[in-house]
Amino acid sequence: MPHGDITHIDIPVADLTRAQEFYSGLFGWQIAAPPGFEDYPMWQAPNKISGGGLAPRSEGFEQPRSYVEVDSIDDTLAKVEASGGTVLMAKSPITDTSWWAIFEDPDGNHIGLYEGITDTAGQ
């Protein structure tokens, strides 16, 4: 995906099993936890493009969060701070080839960033 595309949406949930049943029944989403991420079931919409995860609800993560793919999380977080935003979570690894971070915009919205390649095919 190109820099700036929304690549993923996390939905905070209290009960993973209940949420999987709810969203798969409601929207027809395919939901499964990829190997190595058993506590993080991923959903994919019928269009095979839209997707995200069902993640445990926690303090500060109480509303769905969109993730934007960027060429460089480091460069983007520097621009966030220079533009009046706040880094909530610094760049952190997902896999050996992918990273994420979270920032807050000047209006208080939490947005995730994604950089890299996450390929679970063949695992």
TrEMBL record:
Classification of source organism: Bacteria, Bacillati, Actinomycetota, Actinomycetes, Micrococcales
PANTHER family noted in UniProt: GLYOXALASE-RELATED
PROSITE patterns xref list: VOC (PS51819)
Domain VOC stretches: 5-116
TM ranges: none
SUPFAM superfamilies, alphabetized: Glyoxalase/Bleomycin resistance protein/Dihydroxybiphenyl dioxygenase
Name of protein: Glyoxalase family protein
Pfam families: Ble-like_N
Gene3D superfamilies per record: 2,3-Dihydroxybiphenyl 1,2-Dioxygenase, domain 1 (3.10.180.10)
Source organism per UniProt: Phycicoccus elongatus Lp2
Superkingdom assignment: Bacteria
